[in-house]
Design a protein that fits this description.
The complex is a heterodimer of chains A (about 250) and B (about 425).
Chain A: E1 3-13, E2 16-27, E3 31-35, H1 42-50, E4 56-64, E5 67-68, H2 74-80, E6 82-85, E7 92-96, H3 97-106, H4 117-130, E8 141-142, H5 148-162, E9 166-170, H6 178-191, E10 197-201, H7 205-210, E11 215-220, E12 223-228, H8 230-239, H9 242-250
Parallel strand pairs in A: 3-10, 3-11, 6-9, 9-10
Antiparallel strand pairs in A: 1-2, 1-4, 4-5, 7-8, 11-12
Chain B: H1 18-33, H2 65-73, E1 83-88, E2 91-96, H3 100-104, E3 108-111, H4 112-118, H5 120-126, H6 137-146, E4 150-155, E5 165-171, E6 176-178, E7 181-186, E8 191-200, E9 207-217, E10 222-230, E11 235-245, E12 250-257, E13 262-271, E14 277-286, E15 291-300, E16 306-315, E17 320-329, E18 336-346, E19 352-361, E20 366-376, H7 379-386, H8 392-408, H9 414-429
Parallel strand pairs in B: 1-5, 4-7, 5-8, 6-9, 7-9, 8-10, 9-11, 10-12, 11-13, 12-14, 13-15, 14-16, 15-17, 16-18, 17-19, 18-20
Antiparallel strand pairs in B: 1-2, 3-4
Classes of the chains: A alpha/beta (about 250), B alpha/beta (about 425).
The structure holds adenosine-5'-triphosphate (ATP) and magnesium ion.
Chain lengths: ~250, ~425
């Protein structure tokens, strides 16, 4: 029950199959890395789980602690405990970071109950300090004019403020310099606990040096073709994906 | 029926001077002589003139004392102020004049009739002198013939006043016609701000408004005018506003438009001296069958000056907006910077935003830009916000507020900004599902 379980997921867009019988189980307390060449469907997987409407779910289930969330509204899925750190965070003009996260927290409270503003800001500032984000950012429009690295830090800030049960991080490391990578990774590591599971999508071993995964999966053409321990990521780094493809294509159907 | 439009008459004020009688008569003649607007008229393009049902309205008697008291009590959007006037159906309900200290400096803040009696030369020079060139000349005539309510603010040379003068114009009686007038004269290097607020007593009382506002900003003067138009949706409204800016004057207009069934806003700016800087900002929430018809005119008769216009409209349901903006740079008005931007956010596919930006430039060394954009709610932005647990409705509200924030920030008063947010939120609460 304490898992995010993706079962035989088939997803297409405009009639073209993207996820093909994709299955993966992430227990709480574990970090799973998902790697794979461009265009294999990693972001599609993340967005489908988060409730994006553009994709057609042909079949399958996504069980969050045993409850199917597939096909739900994005806000309901988030409130059930899922958080997606976007590969390309959107810019929302005129909506400040502070107000945005506050609205997200408010949405998790029962009707009629209000956020304690003092405590909220205390927590927000502490978490921003930890991510080395300037406090002036709270008043800035969400992601508007942010650098690539600033956007990714802001994703992790939201993730830590919303206390999710399962985190999917889609290429959070891209756009980060070495220092930012370390700071963001520390933020994520602080969130690692027996109560929380992670799916970390990345192309690079360097992230996994900081956020050491329990399991590494290689995705190719809409499904996982290989799984292993943290060593697998290192192997991929040195050998590339070709051997995986060969193994996959060579494997009996 | 004996209504003001079928049988208009001049309003007479006691001991009215001859010049005023002349202006009223001329106004009445203009109203009678000019035809009703037609859709074929360029100045009324896209406007649904067929819906201009303005007959059947009339000047009403003063409302009951309880009504006046109740509405004065509700005139509480801005508590930190220098002066206050409240009119209900053009009858005076409350007036807080200025301090003796300001009077001693020569500042005048008075209801129109008293200003005419006490400062005839000043009023002769400025009152009812600025008509409109944007299509509602007929209605300006009606205003000139009928106006009796409104406030005059005169700030002499070098006097600076920080707190605003607040004028409330209410409608209350059945099918009332009102003709509010705000006149601001800031002499050289004077500083002042006014807030005009248009409210209806109930959601139901039908009304016709033909208001006029004129700002005269002398050399180096600084004037800030805010307008809150929140009539009920049974009101037909014409606001005919003109700003005249002299050398180095700084004038800022911020208009928030929420109400009326049909609101025509003609906003003219005339730059008469180099170095002037005039801003015209507006935000509008249009819902149901509301129509907001916005016509603007930035005239640069002197060079080296700036005018900057930003009109933002959010539309729901079957609402319509029309933005038609004209920039005219006179020959010799070199080094003019004139900007004009209209942005429309469509929250429902049935809403309709029309934009007609225009330029007429007779000088060669100028920087002018004009542009209009109309867009829908961005689905990816919506998904991003919802993926944080925020409901679709709240996400859309945040987006609309984000869209407006650019204008709301410009009111530069936390109290008013917050009150505006509440007014807009109230309008949305039931709307965005
Ligand atoms: N909205 C869409 N419309 C059409 N095709 C899409 C859409 N979204 C994704 N695709 C296609 O689906 C496939 C998988 O895309 P996806 O973004 O999931 O890949 P990815 O594994 O995340 O790649 P990358 O490593 O480059 O981020 C690609 O071929 C992509 O072009
Ligand atoms: Mg991707």
């Amino acid at each position: 029950m304490n898992t995010l379980e993706i079962k035989n997921l088939n997803v297409s867009i405009d009639g073209q199959a993207i996820l093909k019988d994709f299955s993966l189980t992430i227990p709480k307390g574990e970090v799973h890395a998902l790697m794979g060449p461009n265009g294999t469907g990693k972001s599609t997987l993340a967005k489908v789980i988060a409730g994006h409407e553009d994709y057609t779910v042909e079949s399958g289930e996504v069980l969050l602690d045993g409850v199917n969330i597939l096909g739900g509204e994005p806000d309901d899925i988030a409130k059930a405990g899922l958080f997606l750190a976007f590969q390309y965070p959107l810019e929302i003009p005129g909506v400040s970071i502070a107000n945005f996260i506050r609205a997200a927290r408010q949405a998790r409270l029962p009707e009629g109950e209000d956020i304690n503003a003092v405590e909220y800001y205390k927590e927000l500032y502490a978490k921003m300090d930890a991510l080395k984000m300037d406090r002036k950012f709270t008043a800035r429009s969400l992601n508007e004019g942010f650098s690539g690295g600033e956007k990714k830090r802001c994703e992790i800030l939201q993730m830590s403020m919303l206390d999710p049960k399962y985190c999917i991080m889609d290429e959070t490391d891209s756009g980060l310099d070495i220092d930012a990578l370390r700071i963001v990774s520390e933020g994520v590591n602080l969130m690692r606990s027996e109560e929380r599971g992670f799916l970390v999508i990345t192309h690079y071993q360097r992230l996994l040096d900081y956020i050491v995964p329990d399991v590494v999966h290689v995705m190719f053409d809409g499904r996982i073709v290989h799984s292993g321990d943290a060593e697998l990521a290192k192997e991929l780094e040195s050998k590339g994906y070709d051997w995986v493809k060969e193994e996959f294509v060579g494997a009996p159907a | 029926m004996n209504t003001i439009l079928e049988n208009p008459t001049q309003t007479t004020l006691a001991n009215a001077p001859a010049w005023l009688a002349d202006r009223r008569t001329a106004g009445l003649e203009q109203f009678k002589a000019l035809p009703m607007p037609s859709a074929r008229d360029e100045m009324w393009r896209f406007a649904s003139v067929g819906r201009l049902s303005i007959d059947g309205f009339n000047v009403t008697d003063a409302p009951a004392a309880e009504t006046l008291t109740a509405l004065v009590e509700r005139s509480n959007l801005i508590t930190k102020r220098e002066g206050l006037s409240v009119y209900v159906d053009d009858s005076p309900a409350a007036f807080e004049g200025i301090s003796e200290a300001l009077s001693a400096k020569g500042v005048v803040y008075l209801p129109i009739a008293e200003a005419i009696a006490q400062h005839p030369e000043l009023m002769e020079k400025y009152f009812l002198k600025e008509s409109t060139e944007l299509g509602s000349e007929k209605f300006f005539g009606l205003h000139a013939a009928s106006v009796k309510a409104g406030s005059v603010l005169y700030v002499p040379k070098g006097v600076e006043i920080e707190k605003p003068f607040v004028n409330y114009y209410w409608t209350s009686g059945a099918r009332a016609a009102v003709f509010p007038h705000t006149l601001v004269i800031a002499e050289d290097n004077a500083k002042a701000s006014v807030v005009d607020i248009f409210f209806s007593e109930t959601e139901e009382n039908e009304a016709l408004n033909v208001s006029v506002s004129n700002i005269h900003a002398g050399a180096g003067a600084n004037v800030f005018r805010k307008i809150v138009q929140d009539w009920n949706e049974k009101t037909v409204s014409f606001q005919l506003d003109t700003t005249v800016a002299d050398r180095d004057a700084q004038v800022k207009n911020v208009a928030v438009n929420i109400g009326a069934e049909r609101a025509r806003f003609e906003n003219q700016t005339r730059i008469e001296g180099p170095g002037a800087d005039v801003k015209m900002y507006s935000l509008t929430v249009a819902e149901e069958n509301q129509e907001f018809d916005q016509r603007t005119f930035q005239t640069h008769n002197a060079g080296n000056a700036v005018s900057d216009l930003l009109y933002k409209n959010a539309l729901l349901d079957n609402a319509r907006t029309i933005f038609s903006g004209l920039i005219k740079v006179a020959e010799g008005a070199q080094q003019t910077d004139a900007y004009q931007t209209n942005r429309n956010l469509l929250l429902d596919p049935t809403a309709e935003a029309n934009a007609l930006p225009g330029l007429e430039i007779l000088a060669n060394d100028v920087k002018c830009s004009h542009g209009a954009t109309t867009g829908n709610v961005d689905e990816d932005e919506l998904f991003y916000m919802m993926s944080r647990g925020i409901s679709k409705r709240v996400a859309m509200q945040l987006m609309v507020f984000g869209f407006f924030e650019e204008v709301i920030e410009k009111v530069e008063s936390d109290e008013l900004a917050e009150n505006l947010r509440i007014l807009i939120r109230n309008k949305f609460e039931s709307k965005i599902k």
